[in-house]
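If your schedule permits, I should be very grateful for your opinion on a structural question. The matter concerns a single protein, recorded as an amino acid sequence and a row of backbone structure tokens. Could you please explain, in whatever detail you think fit, how the structure tokens follow from the sequence? I set the record out below, with my sincere thanks for your time.

——
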Amino acid sequence: MKAPHSLPTALVTLFFCFSALPGLLTAQANTYFQQRVDYDISVALDDVRHQLSAQLRLTYTNHSGDTLREIWLHCWPRAYGSDASAFARQQLRNGQTDFHFASAAERGTLDSLRFTVDGVAAEYTFGDSPDLLLLQLPSPLVPGGVVVLETPFRVQIPASFSRLGHVGESYQISQWYPKPAVYDRAGWHPLPYLDQGEFFSEFGSFRVQITLPENYVVGATGVLQEAAERTWLLEKAATDRAALAQRTDLSEGYVREPFPPSATTRKTLTYLAENVHDFAWFADKRFKVLHDTLRLSEVGAAAGAPPRPPKGGSSLAPQPPKGEQPGTTDVWAFFTESQAGLWREATDYLKRATRFYHQHIGPYPYPQVTGLQSALSAGGGMEYPMITVIGLSEDAAALDEVLAHEVGHNWFYGILASNERDHPWLDEGVNSYYEQRYMAGYYPDRSYTLPLFGAIDLNRLGYHFLARQGKDQAPDTRSDSLSYLNYGVGAYSKPSLALHELAAYVGTERLDAAVRAYYQRWQFRHPGPEDFFAVLAEELGEDFGPWFAAALTSTATSDWRVGPRTKAGTTSLAHRGPRLAPATAQISSPSGSLDTVRLHPQQRTLATGDARSVLLPPAGNPLDLYTHNNQRGGKSWQLKPGTSAERTDAKQLFVSPLLGYNAHDGLLAGLALHNRTLEPRRLEWILAPLYGTRSSELAGMAGARYRLLRPTPGIQQVLLSLGTQRFSDFTLPQTDQAYAYQRHALKAEVFFADPPITGRERRLFIQIIDLRQDRPRFENSPQPVGTQRQGNRFYRLGYTQRRDRELRPTEWSVALEYKDRDASVSSSFEASHLRLDASFRGGYQYEADRFLRYRLYGGYFLVNDLRERATYPASALALVDNGISDYRYDDLYFGRSLNASQSSWPGQQLEQRQGGFRAPIGPAFVFGRSNDFLVALNVDADLPFRPLPLGLFLDAGYYSFKATSVEPQQGIFSWVGGVSITAAAGRMGFYLPLVADPTTRNLLDQNGNVLNRLSFRLALEGWLPWRWVDGLF
């Protein structure tokens, strides 16, 4: 019978129907769509008040399957009016204080909004950031529906802090009107304005009417509609070109050029733009103009498949706009007298850059392309549809480079409109790759050169500098979560290097074909990284592996090493790092011929025969983490002054002359030999022998450091270091003989991983310091009869945390120290102790470059053999940080055992490790010393007078002191204040005490004249050329 089976079958069928329903709904929700926004804006410029008065009519078409009840709008000029805006916070985070300290007259805003929707008044509120506006629709906007939003608005144009701004009567009008956020499958994307971080916008059309004084020259997105104005611009362009050709005095630098008076009559200019997502315009009465035309139909566009939608979607790509003369593209250049000598060739640069992208990526669909020079505070250039604005350039090639990059943005983000805020690499990185190829084609011999360092690859250097310290971030990180350095490396450098790596593996032509397919499929749409990867995978097949996406979505590294050659004629290969990437090898035969071979990610041997050398060239392996191990055979030795970028084909040794001085050794002369390149290395070492002309003794430093990169999650890096130093530190007056110390230090530092955007550094360290001091030995005689060696060993465990914030930087540390006596030396001169030290530094920047800084310090002996004695060795707590109280020899001093009362300037050098008193009171006085506890406060206040860096300082301390062994501990309060001249955030300074408590004043008076009461700070260890060996000495 079938009846018993019918119910289970029906239940199974029903179950599958209900199971499939969420999938069907999900598929519908994930169907690609994009909204459309059409703008009609009338705007008038008031160049006296620096204001825009405008009327906006915005037509919003809902192509989604959702009913909308609200619309998020960007009102980005409002970011310039509040310290609470995301822009203001980011400026401070990136160390830029100009906006924070700007006057009210320099700031900007957008106001006077009165929204109607289809003629009905609409309410709105502002979001968490003041430049985000949530508009409530009076009636729901159903799928396929259209609404018309209208409002007046006024813009107060700020000074030039970022993109929108003005310098005098030169105007850069961008990100200036209320603009709907993107609504897509992920929902709304409201984006507060940022300087570091770009945009995401809907396609549509623009009709913009601009009214301003008649003698302004305007460059803008779109096509100018007034025939008379176009004729005037063409005539001006012809006149300016002829004049420039005749001049021999054209400047290639900045020229101060006055603004002519504004005309009393006004003009209205109309611009139309189709299939764009933004509109910008620029106005300056001083603009020179050049014009040319380009027939791209004669150039030929990149071949490619016809546009096709992604799976599950439908093509919404609108038709390319039509110009007045089909097939002809207008090319315009606007610039001032500044760098006119460079800009007279600008139209040629614009033409060939447009040809390059047109040929390699896909057709340029717009009727004009414009390059414009004006004030710009957001990077070297900024792109808008059909127009780019750039600042001053270093030379003609640099101008060509920036113009090419910004022209390329018409494709990458202009037409392929990805979310720049969430995925900045998808336009910046891909565009940088093609810009680099453009420059390599037209400037094959050009390289970036740093004085003393030679030619370097800035992209590889930037990546290696961050990645080798574990400070890099994945390129596919939101712009507002990238640190300032990582934005440059992650958004631009590393993605372009990843594409060079891919091109070296699959071939440039195949990669170009894949990118052309990406362009054809996604033009005038909003692709994401997954869409880019999908097209590459489809076009490149099995040659496209997960290693490419890993370079962009993670910090995983790849490090190839070329090993030794076997008797069988093969060369071993090794790979370290979680990103198994391919490589390109060059095999050099004995005759000198080169054979290029692709290495698959899993390949570990290479048939090389009797090859003279095997090389993994940097050009083919640009993301290889360490390149010194990428060649076997044929390496030369390079001896170079200073340092340079790391080379694959050479064993590098660097040398630098050194000069120094201290009162005991006299003039110190010698050399520093080291292996440190501009990029950090896994193993770094330095040897710096010096000779003292006064002591006739050998002195100097040596050290090595080994780096463990990201050994475990949560750890950025571990540094293992070993250092030694030897200098004279004591001179016996009777014989004028100098005696030396030797300091050996072993240190392990653990740097914890923190998001670089926080500016926080956390470090745990363990250190062992072995100190030996030679001193004269006396045996019942006033004259020394020999030398005795004194020694101590210190064991330290500490933690430090600092946070670099421009307005309120902080740093705190705590350390536990055990000091033991070493019985192996001839004399042990101090008792043992267990000591706890803690300090906190803070500051507040109250106006530009003017700080109030403070420091709190506390020290306490948990165990001290000398607590109840009135003997105060060098290791006692000290209010004054001179050479004597630097008992671990952490710092370098000009006169370690001298003091100001000896009328010797080296003895007036002070530091700030314990009490930090700026009072040069020498060790002859038992002042400010304790075997028990000490707390201190140091305050520095920069005075607002400019340009001298004058300030005031105040030091106060309270400590326990025993005058004699039989007296009880007593608390003593001391203080001193005066004037200072400081630099380098207080690391250099001169301090003159003026007021103090009676005891301190009396001791200072015993120094004699004013010059002997003056102290100075010069943190020498921070200025040494080998300071990169952190904490070795």
About this structure: The longest strand covers residues 715-732. Residues 69 and 140 are 5 Å apart (CA to CA). The two ends are 93 Å apart (CA to CA).
